[in-house]
Amino acid sequence: MQAGVDEAEVVFRSGSGSAALCEGETAIGLFSADGHLLVEGSTSAPYQAALLRVWIQAIQDRIDDGEGAWVSNDPYDGGGSICDLKMVAPVQTESGVLWVAVTGHYSDLGGKSVGGVAPGARRIHEEGLRIPFSRLDEHLTELLSANCRYAGVARQDL
Length: 158
Description:
- The protein has helices at residues 2-14, 19-22, 46-59, 138-146, 151-157, and strands spanning 26-31, 37-40, 69-72, 84-93, 96-105, 134-136.
- By secondary structure, the chain is α+β, with helices and mostly antiparallel strands.
- The protein has one domain.
- A 6-stranded antiparallel beta sheet has the order 2-1-5-4-3-6, sandwiched between helices.
- Helix 4 runs antiparallel to helix 5 (151-157).
- The longest helix has 14 residues, at 46-59.
- The two termini are 24 Å apart.
């Protein structure tokens, strides 16, 4: 399992167009159906890995066993900042469903300034687009990329 998770993290980083993701501000984990961490990436950033564990615990009762990925960056729903985007998807195994989850710090998700760093911000929306726990599909991908300064990079990273 460890080798598979490590390989997935390499693919996530190397396929990215964002500097923060390429340089390793990411984490990946494999979770049991009840939300317990089974294994995390050997090179996962500690802060991101901790956020991922907290997020899975916060959203586990909202994940269904269907296909597709779920995404969120809501700091009030599992921690992190607006630019810490988290995704989870089911993996069917012989013994049941497991969840693969990944998070990373995206360079831009809209907002007042690049990277979600807005020292003078008075409201969370000035930091970027707040995404509640949602199914990731083509419409959401288009919405997110349309609100980013670097739409092509955002689309590639999603």
